[in-house]
Design brief:
single chain, alpha+beta, Protein Transport Mog1p, Chain A, 8-stranded mixed sheet, 4-stranded mixed sheet, globular, DUF3710
């Protein structure tokens, strides 16, 4: 189910949406958020009894049929996480954010600007977490659909990039959508610049596997 991917995947350069449920609940209760109905979860509200791949700041629920491809540097720091299910993929990033306001609106506007400057016309649509972006981009393999989803949480933001069937049709998210709503963010207490990627690391067993494969 879990694999370490050495080759780098290609990145797409990256009415206001309401705050995500995680952030809205935090704000409405003076910083002590009640448990939301669904995730991504802040660590203090993560449901028990769920098997997860622990990458440090991000924990990914282990669901049947989903392959987790992780690209890491020689020190074991995770640089990219991509989930694959059939003809759909989901790339994940988690970033530092202010405690009392979300940053997805601002990040989304910058993605729109970057795409527009490349001759791409992104479309804003309303999804489970608020305003999303959908577009068709050019790749070396030909035109491809992408869909950006942002989730603002207390002191963090998740940026999710769907590719393939789940990008062109949100109704085909399937198990990848379940993974997104089951993510757990473990935000440390370190003060970090807004938008700085939260640190992720390979689990010990995956790091050891990578070291064992290196000589070969």
């Amino acid at each position: 189910m879990f694999s370490r991917k050495r080759g780098a995947a290609k990145h797409v350069r990256a009415a206001d949406a309401p705050p995500s449920q995680a952030l809205a609940n935090s704000l409405s209760s003076g910083g002590e958020a009640p448990a939301p109905e669904f995730g991504p979860w802040d660590a203090k509200h993560a449901p028990d009894g769920v098997q997860r791949l622990d990458l440090g700041s991000l924990q990914i629920p282990a669901l049947e049929g989903v392959e987790v491809r992780v690209q890491a540097n020689p020190e074991g720091g995770v640089e990219q996480v991509v989930l694959v299910d059939g003809d759909s993929a989901l790339q994940l990033g988690v970033f530092a954010a202010p405690k009392t306001e979300g940053i997805w609106d601002e990040v989304r506007a910058e993605i729109v600007e970057a795409m527009t400057s490349d001759g791409v016309a992104p479309q804003e649509i309303t999804g489970k977490y608020g305003t999303e972006l959908r577009a068709r981009v050019s790749t070396p393999e030909g035109p491809a659909d992408v869909r950006f989803v942002g989730v603002d949480g207390p002191r963090w933001m998740i940026r999710a990039l769907y590719q393939g069937a789940a990008a062109s049709d949100p109704g085909r998210e399937g198990v990848l959508g379940e993974v997104l709503s089951g993510l757990v963010v473990v935000r440390d207490n370190e003060p970090r610049p807004v938008r700085e990627p939260l640190p992720m690391r390979l689990p010990k067993e995956m790091a050891q596997q990578g070291q064992a494969e290196s000589p070969a």
